[in-house]
Amino acid sequence: MSRLSKHPAAAVAALCILCASFPSRAAQDEEWEWMVAPYLWAASIGTDLRTGQPPAETDTSFSDIVDKIDGAFQVHAEGQGERFGIFADYIFLGLEDDKDFTRIRTQSDLDSQLFELAAVWSPGEGRYRGLDVFGGLRYVDVDLKVRFDPVNPVFVPSERNIDKSYSDFMLGARYTWALSDRWGLTLRGDGSFGDTEGTWNASAFAQYRVKHGAWLFGYRYLSVEVETGNSSTDITLNGPVVGFGFVF
After folding, report:
1. Collapsed DSSP state (helix, strand, coil) of residue 155
2. CA–CA distance from 158 to each of 53, 57, 100, 223, 237 (Å)?
3. Strand partners, 109
4. Biggest alpha carbon distance in the chain?
5. Residue 15 in 3-state DSSP?
6. 8-67 pLDDT, tens per residue?
7. Model's pTM, two decimal places?
8. Are 116 and 222 a contacting pair, CB within 8 Å?
């Protein structure tokens, strides 16, 4: 699958065409419910860089090369009818760190963006209950700069740069249990393939509905593997999530 664009606009346009193909009767007969949910993901972060051309006297794999958050922003938006829906999710993550390895020091700076846009089909009990199946696009942008400073002054410093965007086809499912009038529980799992070497996502969320929306509490795991030239990078995030969904 070829890259759609350096920017997520192409992904948005492509999925808008997909959504436009939904039956018009569904749009006319249903009153959709919309939710916008900014959230905080207190994730533990793992970043592994593997290079086929290592700096002198070092291994080719560098684990947790960068794991200190410099900036982050996350938001989820969703619209749902009785049978069809759509959602989007955006994550920006800025990381920077210095590391000391056996024979080398590294200075790393990583800016990454992840954007998801998907159409949802609910074959079962209705909106936000039972099984939902979804498919769409996952866009990943990685800008990683790593400077390698050998401990041995005989060797000169070197740099590795990854600045590339990737577009995948995403397919997944989720199941929601209505535990009471206010409480719900949703399990989600999905994967995507295309330009990346594979991304995997799994989450469990509890929802507590209030007058103007719902509190969201849960746990999320995300793994992304990207490759460019002689280098590949694994980014893994996992940890608790809390947010509030504004419903209208």
Report:
1. coil
2. 11, 12, 15, 28, 28
3. 96, 145
4. 74
5. helix
6. 555 445 444 444 444 444 444 468 999 999 998 888 887 787 776 555 334 344 555 556
7. 0.79
8. no
Distance of CA 78 to the CA centre of its chain: 16
d(CA 99, CA 64): 9
Amino acid identity of residue 18, one-letter, is L
For 63, 153, 232, the CA distances from 99, given in Å and listed in that order, are 10, 17, 18
Task: Report yes or no: 134 and 88 within 8 Å, Cβ to Cβ.
Answer: no
Decide if 166 contacts 195 (C-beta within 8 A): yes
Q: Which residue has the tokens 């970043």?
A: 47
Domains and their CATH numbers in the chain: 9-247 (2.40.128.90)
Distance from C-alpha of 78 to C-alpha of 186, rounded to nearest angstrom: 14
Distance in angstroms (rounded) separating the CA atoms of residues 217 and 16: 29
The alpha helices in the chain, defined as continuous H runs, are: 9-20, 24-29
Residue 131 CA: distances (Å) to CA of 40, 156, 179, 230:
26, 57, 15, 41
Closest CA to 158 of 169, 147, 172: 147
Dump pLDDT digits (tens) for 174-225: 999 999 999 999 999 999 999 999 999 999 999 999 988 999 999 999 999 9
Alpha-carbon gap, residue 141 to 219, rounded angstroms: 23
Is the C-alpha dihedral spanning 169, 242, 35, 123 positive or negative? positive
| Residue 71 CB burial class (10 angstroms; 0-12, 13-18, ≥19) | exposed
